[in-house]
Each structure stands twice: as structure tokens, then as C-alpha cells.
Amino acid sequence: MALRFLRSLIPRREKRNNGGTLRALRSLTFIQLLQFVTGWLAWTCDAFDFFCVALSVNTLAEDFDKKPGQITTAITLTLLFRSLGAVVFGILSDRFGRKWPLFANLVIVCSIEIGTSFVKTFPQFLAARALFGVAMGGIWGLAASTALENLPVELRGLGSGIVQQGYACGYLLASMVNLTVIPHTSHGWRALFYAAACLSSSTAILRALTPESAVFLRAKALEKINGGHATGDKTKIFIKETKAMLKAHWKLCIYAILLMTGFNFLSHGSQDLYPTYLETSKGFSTHSATVATMISNCGAISGGAIAGWASQYIGRRLTIVIFILLVGAFIPLWILPTSFSALAAGAFFLQFGVQGAWGVVPIQLAEMSPPAFRATFPGVAYQLGNMISAASAQIEAVGGSNIRTTITVGGVTKNVPDYATVQGILIGVVAAYLIIVTILGPENHGTHFESAKTAFEGGAGADEMQNVGMGKPRSIRELEGKDDDEVV
């Protein structure tokens, strides 16, 4: 029975990757590679900014004369408002294309980052982080769709793992700046946001110089051949198809939100308060906590890439389950030791599992989504899950204030919050929840979602992944049916 269960998680043979990864890599064009890198960079710079706060909790508390638990309110606000951004920018992307909505999104992110670096009061800081939450909410859906829909289907598992680890790369880059630059500048934590603004603006320029996704270019070309529609008509079609999608796929929407709630509790519960946990509960210096954070993100990056690649062969759900089991196995090493080397090793392997499972999420959501809404559906599901899990850092902060332990630092015994126990319990429960939800969910492994209609075409809202044709995208097949002079 156990063997039969495992087989049910592995995709059928005809849908599996048939050793074409190297061949597909060689077939990549410069434009495809550039589009993928742009999506990865967008998510990287977004994560860089988000973790600027997590890395500076204690410093911000001193600067604004607040407790660390109050500072984590900024993290909660950011997560709460991300859903709004996912709706707004996801709709714009599915309606108008990937290029200019993502460009505008990045410019707004850059502006808010600059504004954050100039705030003077704690309420101003909270307002800036709430606004950043709206902007950040739009990035993931647009970045993932930009990166994945232009790749050959054989590379989408690997691409998913790499693009999702833009999140870990952003955390790693922020940690490096915090370690090497912040101690030597008079601007303190504000310099982190200066650096974030530079990264976001550079990515926005790259997005402006990179062509639109081929899916939208083909759809527009096909529409032009067939007579086209006025902008107002296309908007009416888009609204109609959005309603049809929600009516046809509302159960899938609920499932995706439940899945992403668990995933966001897993990542934020293991990352957002991690530097504070090391400094407060283990007595490490800020320097040592930052180094440990960097080591953990190296584990995250490697785990994401390996899991994404593995999911091409053994399936999305089974890969997620395996890597979450790794998370459970390494929780003791993550929280019990007292030495830096052991804790750093625990952080590496725990994040190898956490972000390994996360590495499959972009492609799992893209293949699960109604195909015409690959920016809106995954983005909104992701950010609604974020909204539900928004208080994870505060839950841990409050839990730590009630569950306490004693440590000895420099011969002095201190009574401190026991973040180790709190985080261990939270991550253990979330891991068990995710295994169950993942197993019960759908999987459309290897689907050619690029062959579907776009959201401003009639009938797109009721499309299902299993009905999407294999092989050449629909718009290519239809264009090839036209005479050359008609195409021109």
C-alpha cells in the first residue's frame, strides 16, 4: 500500500522529463535567458528589502525606542498588505502583459525604499513598510510568470527552484551588506535601504530593456490577424473571463490559499526572527548571527535548485513531501546546540529543506493555476497565504516573552526569551500540516500552459490545465495556419 501511495505521487511516464534537460539548456536563446534572469532579479531585490527589517530588529528597536516585538509589527504590516499588491499587479499583468506592469512595480518598490531610508518616526516607518507590502505583493506573481513561461517545459522545474531562491539570494545579499557595510557607515540601518533602492532601480531598467513575453506577443499578433478588439472590449472580455475563472475554479483557489498559508508560515517562521533568536536566546553577537544567516541561505539556495530539478523526475508533490520531511529531521539541530558551528549547520540543513520545498512552489502553482491567470492566481494565493501567516514573527515574539530560559554570556546569567522552543514547536506543526495538504492536492506535472489562451481572449476563464494542448502553443499553431502575407 505504501508503494502504491508513492507511485500515485510520481507523474505518469508520458509526462515525465525524458533526459532532455541538457538539450533544453542548449536550446535556450539569449532573450529567454534574459527574461528568466529579469524575473529572478526582481524577486531577489524584493527579498533584499524585506529582510532589511529582519536583520535590523534590535537596531531599529534602539533607534525608535521600542521593544523588538513592536518592531516586528512592521514585518506583519508588510505581509498583510502584500495581498492587495498581488491583486492589482496580477490583474494588470494578465491583462496587459508582463513587461510594463513589472517595470512599474519595481519603480514603486525603489521609491518606497528611498522613502523608508528617510523616515524619522516609528509611525512613519510603519507606514512605509505597509506601502512596501503593497508593492512587494505584486512582484512574485509577475517575476515567476516572466521567468517560467518563457522556458522550455523540460527546464521549468529547475527554473522554479532557481527563481524562488531569489528570495534566499536577496536575504544573503542583505546579510552581506549588513555584515560588511553597516558597521562602517554613519547611516546605520538606513544604508540597507539605500542599497535596496539601487538594486531595484537597476532591475527596473533591465526589465524595460527586455522584450515582452512571447506568449503575449503571439496573442497580440493573432488578435491583429483576426481583426482585433478595442481596448475597452478586451477589458470587458477580461472581466468576464475572470468571473468565469472564479466560478469554475473556486475550490482550487481555496486549496491554493491553504497550501500557501502553510508554506508562508514555514518560511517566515524559520527566517524572520532567526537573527534575533541567535542574538537573544543564544547570546551571539550581531556579527555571528549575520554569518549564521548567510550560511543558512547558502543551504536555501542549494536546496531550492536541487528540489526544483528533482521535481522534473519524481513529481512536484513528492519532492515537496521529501524536503519537508528533511525539515522535521533537522529541527533538533536547529534549536538545541549552543555552539556556533552546530547551530550554523542546523540552519543550513533546515533551510535546505524549507527552501527546497519552496523551490517547487512556483512551478506547482503555475501548473495548477487556470492557465490564462498565471500571474493573478499564483500571486494572490501566495499573498493571501502571506496575509494569514503575517503574524508569525509576532507569534514567536509573544511566545518568547512567555516561554523563557536562562543563558550565561561572559560569566553573566540572563533570563531571556526561549525562541528556540517556540520556533521548534511552530515549524514542527506547520511541517506536518504541509505534508497533509500537499498530498491531498492536485498536480499537473509538465503541462504546456503556454499553449492556453490569454486572459483577454474569450473562453480563457474556463480553461483547465488538463485541457491545454501539448506541443506547440495554440497561438503558434494558429499563426502557422495563416498565409505569410496575412501574418505581416
TrEMBL record:
<dbReference type="Pfam" id="PF07690">
    <property type="entry name" value="MFS_1"/>
</dbReference>
<dbReference type="GO" id="GO:0015355">
    <property type="term" value="F:secondary active monocarboxylate transmembrane transporter activity"/>
</dbReference>
<dbReference type="GO" id="GO:0005886">
    <property type="term" value="C:plasma membrane"/>
</dbReference>
<dbReference type="InterPro" id="IPR020846">
    <property type="entry name" value="MFS_dom"/>
</dbReference>
<feature type="transmembrane region" description="Helical">
    <location>
        <begin position="71"/>
        <end position="93"/>
    </location>
</feature>
<feature type="transmembrane region" description="Helical">
    <location>
        <begin position="125"/>
        <end position="145"/>
    </location>
</feature>
<protein>
    <recommendedName>
        <fullName>Major facilitator superfamily (MFS) profile domain-containing protein</fullName>
    </recommendedName>
</protein>
<keyword id="KW-0472">Membrane</keyword>
<feature type="transmembrane region" description="Helical">
    <location>
        <begin position="289"/>
        <end position="311"/>
    </location>
</feature>
<feature type="transmembrane region" description="Helical">
    <location>
        <begin position="166"/>
        <end position="185"/>
    </location>
</feature>
<feature type="region of interest" description="Disordered">
    <location>
        <begin position="462"/>
        <end position="488"/>
    </location>
</feature>
<keyword id="KW-0812">Transmembrane</keyword>
<dbReference type="InterPro" id="IPR036259">
    <property type="entry name" value="MFS_trans_sf"/>
</dbReference>
<keyword id="KW-1133">Transmembrane helix</keyword>
<dbReference type="InterPro" id="IPR011701">
    <property type="entry name" value="MFS"/>
</dbReference>
<feature type="transmembrane region" description="Helical">
    <location>
        <begin position="252"/>
        <end position="269"/>
    </location>
</feature>
<feature type="transmembrane region" description="Helical">
    <location>
        <begin position="318"/>
        <end position="336"/>
    </location>
</feature>
<dbReference type="GO" id="GO:0035879">
    <property type="term" value="P:plasma membrane lactate transport"/>
</dbReference>
<feature type="domain" description="Major facilitator superfamily (MFS) profile">
    <location>
        <begin position="35"/>
        <end position="445"/>
    </location>
</feature>
